[in-house]
Design goal:
The chain is an all-alpha fold and 326 residues long. The protein has one domain: Orthogonal Bundle (ABC transporter involved in vitamin B12 uptake, BtuC). It has a two-stranded antiparallel sheet. The chain starts with a helix and ends in a 10-residue tail after the last helix.
Length: 326
């Protein structure tokens, strides 16, 4: 492949997932050559299980960023929703009822973000930054900083069960991914979400009630965050206030690295999936190579910064895709 062909591949929105897949393959080959433990079955399972949480969050974030918005509160929604579900289960309600309460609470909290954003027209960055503090503060008030723990076995299966050799979270992430693709590509909801990022004024002039779709997309992201919170609480046998800290940054990074522009108007769910895999493999590889933890954070941040800068430059200067053509 010539350098011009490489640039066209990296700049093309349709071909960019192939570029990510090639980068992921090369990284796996490199790590496999450096340590015999990377390409083992157990490690592949660990990567799938570790990436499943981030993937579920990133799916919801893809819809939000495709609409030209952003959500910094998903980590707090994750924590508060899991706590509410845990309290419901500890109060004697059936496990499935408690899980429904948690997901419904997450969707409601996300919808609050959408309503505030639509009514005030304040930047979603500011709105969700404020609600992130609000929701986590509410979780502190409810629990007084004490984790809610010791759940029934049926609930713990959600986080540490085994279905065909994998945790339920992996299968759930695969199912949600399979549902997200047609939702984004073939439904009115998906088209309107991307239009909100492309030209919201034109959408409103066409008579579309944009507030409903903004609320729905934030509610979707909140519900998915709550689902991750339930899985984490089941895995740790505890729902705590600090759960989900920083996970919103991973989700946002995965979406941007995956090729969805921060300005919205377009979405790449395939890119999001590959970016989650790439970032998870990077973290796993650093651990297997015995890189000290204080270096891991720095190296992970540097890789994320480079990848996001590359993705944004690719979007801002699409003309490179035309260079080298006859």
């Amino acid at each position: 492949m010539t350098f011009q062909s490489f640039r066209r591949l990296a700049a093309s929105p349709r071909a960019y997932p192939l570029f990510l897949a090639a980068a992921l393959l090369l990284l796996c080959l490199f790590l496999g050559s450096r340590t015999p433990y990377f390409l083992t079955l157990n490690n592949m399972v660990n990567i799938c299980e570790a990436g499943s949480y981030g993937l579920i969050l990133a799916l919801g974030m893809t819809f939000i960023i495709a609409a030209g918005a952003i959500d910094l509160s998903v980590g707090s929604i994750l924590s508060l929703s899991a706590i509410l579900a845990a309290l419901a289960i500890k109060a004697g309600l059936p496990v499935w009822t408690g899980c429904l309460i948690g997901v419904a609470a997450g969707s409601a909290l996300g919808a609050v973000n959408g309503i505030l954003f639509h009514l005030t027209r304040i930047s979603p960055l500011i709105v969700t930054l404020a609600t992130a503090a609000l929701f986590r503060g509410l979780a502190l008030i409810i629990t007084r900083g004490v984790p809610v723990s010791l759940f029934p076995r049926e609930f713990l299966f959600l986080g540490s069960g085994n279905i065909a050799g994998l945790e339920p979270a992996v299968w759930l992430a695969l199912l949600l991914t399979a549902l997200a693709f047609p939702l984004m590509r073939f439904t009115r909801f998906g088209h309107y979400v991307k239009s909100l990022g492309g030209n919201p004024v034109a959408l409103e002039r066409c008579g579309v009630r944009t507030g409903i779709y903004r609320t729905a997309m934030f509610g979707l992201a909140g519900g998915l965050a709550a689902l991750v919170g339930l899985i984490m609480a089941a895995r740790l046998n505890a729902a705590e206030v600090n759960a989900g800290l920083g996970m919103e940054l991973f989700a946002i990074s995965a979406v941007l690295v995956g090729g969805t522009p921060l300005t919205g108007g377009r979405a790449s769910l395939a890119g999001t999936v590959l970016a989650v895999a790439l970032l998870t493999v990077i973290r796993n590889g650093l651990t297997i190579l015995a890189i000290p933890s204080y270096y891991q954070e720095f190296l992970t941040g540097a890789v994320l910064l480079a990848a996001v800068l590359f993705a944004e430059l690719r979007i801002r200067f699409p003309g490179v895709a035309k260079q080298g053509r006859p």
